[in-house]
Amino acid sequence: MSHTHNVILECTDLSKTFYSTEPPTDVLDGIDLTVGDGEFLVVMGASGSGKSTMLYNISGMDRPTGGRVALGGKEITSLTDAEMSRVRLTGMGFIFQQAYFLKNLNIQDNILLPALKATPKDRTGAVKRVDDLMERFGIAHIKRHGITQISGGQLQRASICRALATEPAILFADEPTGALNSTMTAEVMDALTSVHRAGTTIVLVTHDPACAARGDRVVYLRDGQILDSHAMGAWTEEGAERREDDIFAWLAKKGF
Ligand SMILES: Nc1ncnc2c1ncn2[C@@H]1O[C@H](COP(=O)(O)OP(=O)(O)OP(=O)(O)O)[C@@H](O)[C@H]1O
Q1: How far, in Å, is the centroid of ligand 1 from the Cα of 181?
Q2: Measured from the CA of 53, which atom of ligand 1 is nearest?
Q3: Going from the N-terminus, what domains does the chain have, and what CATH number goes with each?
Q4: Do β-strands 217-222 and 225-231 pair in parallel, antiparallel, or remain unpaired?
Q5: Ligand 1 center–CA 242 separation, angstroms
Q6: Domain ABC transporter: where (predicted)?
Q7: Which of 66, 137, 200, 235 is at 20 to 30 A from 145, Cα to Cα?
Q8: Ligand 1 pocket residue status of 18, Cβ below 6 Å
Q9: What is the chain's pLDDT, residue by residue, as a tens digit (256 residues)?
Q10: pTM score, two decimals?
C-alpha cells in the first residue's frame, strides 16, 4: 500500500473453516491484510489456495470463522445479516466470472436494479448514473438489448456499470476475465483501470499476470496464508509489458 493512502479495508487474523466436510477444511489461516483507499490490489495464488474464499470473507458475502474485518474503520464482521446486506448494497460493488443478469430484463434495466434498490426514491438519479456509466464504458448503444444479444466483453462491462451504479467505495472482482478472450479481457481491464483512476478501490482475484499488471500491488496466497506482497506503483500502457514480465518472474520464484 502506498503511504499516502488511508486504510479502507483492514482484516486481522482472518480464518475460515468449512465444517460441511469431514474432517473440516481449514481454508483461510490467519490473514492480515490492509487495503488503501483508492488502491488497486490484486490477489493471486494457485488453484485452491483460498483466493475466492478470502474475497467472500472480506466482503461480507460469507462470514469468517475467526478474526475481524473493518470497512472504513467500522467492523463489519459483527453486523447482522440485514445490516451486512445494506453495507454490501451501498458500499460495495461485485463482479464475477459470469454476469448474473436476469434474462427477462434488457441490459439497462439489469444495471439499474441494485441502484434502484439502494436509492428507491431517486429513480431519476439512478437512471442518470446508469446512462452515464453505459456511455463511459461504451455500451450505451446496446442498452435495450437482451443479455443473450451482446458479447461477453460487453456483458462484463455491463457488470461493471451495475456494480458502480450504487457508487461503492470498493469494488470486488473475482476472475472477471476468466471466461473472456484476450481482446475482451483488455476491454474489461481498460474499464477497471479507468474505475481505479477515478478513485474507486479495487480488489481483483486473477490467474492472469497481464491482468495483475494493472494493479498497484499483488498479494500471493498459499494454503490460506498471504505468503508475499509485491508493490508495483501505478500502471501505464508503456510500462505494461515490463510489469507483466516482472510479475511472471515474481510468481515463478513461488512455483506458480
Ligand atoms: N463451501 C465449501 N465447503 C468446503 N470446502 C470449500 C468450500 N468452498 C471452498 N472450499 C475449499 O477451499 C479451498 C479454497 O477454495 P477457493 O475457491 O477459495 O480457492 P481459489 O484459490 O479461489 O481457487 P481457484 O483459483 O480454483 O478459483 C478449496 O480446497 C476448496 O475445495
Answers
A1: 24
A2: 18
A3: 37-60+80-252 (3.40.50.300)
A4: antiparallel
A5: 32
A6: 9-248
A7: 200
A8: yes
A9: 444 569 999 999 999 999 999 999 999 999 999 999 999 999 999 999 999 999 999 999 999 999 999 999 999 999 999 999 999 999 999 999 999 999 999 999 999 999 999 999 999 999 999 999 999 999 999 999 999 999 999 999 999 999 999 999 999 999 999 999 999 999 999 999 999 999 999 999 999 999 999 999 999 999 999 999 999 988 999 999 999 999 999 999 998 8
A10: 0.95
Residue type, 191: A
Rg (CA), the chain: 18
* Nearest in space to 177 (alpha carbons), one of 165, 185, 167, 169: 185
Of ligand 1's atoms, which has the minimum distance to the CA of residue 54? 18
Residue matched to cell numbers 456494480: 163
Q: Could you count the other beta carbons within 10 Å of the beta carbon of residue 206?
A: 24
Among protein residues, the one whose CA lies closest to atom 24 of ligand 1: 47
For ligand 1, mutation pick of 15, 44, 51, 256 (most atoms within 8 Å of CB): 51
